[in-house]
């Protein structure tokens, strides 16, 4: 069945669960989970505005659970050029837990299914059942948990590798739809989920991701990413210009990226040609 069902077959499950997201909204607002078409049509037809657009996604029915909780991974990605596509990947992500234990028996309780801090903090169990700091883990804690649970580093290595691969493929697919403006950049928040076989799945890509100091984990990381982003979008171009003026023959871009301090940002993809 797996061979004939395609690569998504294991996460599809057998309960026909779907997640509906209103387009143009953030922080988990308006998201609902259903397993019946008539309930979906009633919700989008009678309970919401007529001009609302929706994104429907197959819901992962076999997520990897930690202490019976569903979680996702927030990964920052910076695009400094769309043509040629130039992608930066932040070296440290963080883990966001749902406020309550996961079950597919209750699809109406978003505290069991949505890990957004803006949603989870309203759960009556948020404080009593908190995991980590504010229901968040650092990347190091997550790595340690996977290594202790599996007895090797292979699970985390697979997660880290697939997040990078999915990031590049996703942005490459969207490259032709984005108007390139020289001298501009955009910070994205990629949200990933991991299934019970340690396979990574992209949930969504967020424009203008939250940079609030909502927990001790985000307080530390947000301060770091702001400083490091300035190194990439301000200091690096100035250094590139300086070297261009003072170095003859010009140095390759790869040498500049290797030598210059960009903090925890790593350039993981830089197309060598422009796309018409």
Walkthrough of the structure:
With 276 residues, the chain is α+β, with helices and mostly antiparallel strands. The chain contains eight helices and ten strands. The strands form two sheets. Strands 4, 5, 6, 7, 8, 9 and 10 form a seven-stranded antiparallel sheet that branches. A three-stranded antiparallel sheet has the order 2-1-3, covered by helices on one side. A hairpin with a 5-residue loop joins strand 8 and strand 9 (200-207).
Give a quick summary of the entry.
This protein is an alpha+beta fold. 34% of the residues lie in helices and 22% in strands.
Our Rg estimate from Cα atoms comes to 21 Å
What structural class results from the helix and strand content?
alpha+beta
The low-confidence runs, each spanning 5 or more residues with pLDDT under 50, are none
Strand tally, please?
10
Which descriptor suits the 3D outline?
globular
The helix/strand order is HHEEHEEEEHEHHEEHHE
Tell me the quaternary state: single chain
What proportion of the residues is helical, as a percent range? Answer: 25-40%
The portion of residues forming beta strands comes to 15-25%
Main sheet makeup = 7 strands, antiparallel
């Amino acid at each position: 069945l797996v061979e004939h069902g395609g690569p998504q077959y294991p996460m599809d499950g057998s309960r026909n669960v779907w997640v509906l997201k209103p387009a143009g909204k953030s922080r988990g607002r308006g998201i609902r989970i259903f397993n019946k078409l008539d309930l979906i049509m009633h919700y989008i037809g009678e309970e919401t505005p007529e001009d609302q657009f929706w994104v429907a996604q197959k819901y992962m029915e076999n997520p990897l659970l930690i202490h019976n909780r569903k979680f996702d991974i927030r990964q920052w990605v910076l695009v400094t050029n769309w043509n040629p596509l130039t992608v930066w990947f932040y070296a440290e992500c963080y883990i966001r837990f749902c406020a309550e234990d996961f079950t597919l028996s209750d699809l109406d309780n978003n505290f069991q299914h949505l890990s957004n801090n803006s949603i989870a903090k309203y759960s009556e169990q948020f404080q009593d059942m908190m995991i980590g700091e504010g229901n968040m883990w650092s990347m190091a804690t997550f790595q340690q948990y996977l290594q202790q649970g599996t007895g090797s580093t292979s699970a985390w290595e697979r997660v880290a590798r697939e997040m990078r691969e999915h990031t590049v493929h996703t942005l490459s697919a969207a490259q032709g739809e984005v108007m390139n403006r020289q001298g501009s950049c955009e910070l994205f928040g990629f949200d990933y989920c991991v299934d019970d076989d340690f396979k990574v799945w992209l949930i969504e890509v967020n424009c203008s991701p939250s940079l609030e100091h909502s927990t001790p984990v985000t307080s530390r990381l947000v301060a770091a990413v702001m400083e490091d982003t300035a190194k990439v979008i301000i200091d690096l171009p100035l250094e590139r210009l300086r070297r261009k003026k003072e170095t003859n023959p010009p140095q390759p871009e790869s040498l500049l990226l290797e030598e210059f301090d960009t903090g925890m940002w790593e350039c993981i993809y830089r197309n060598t040609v422009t796309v018409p």
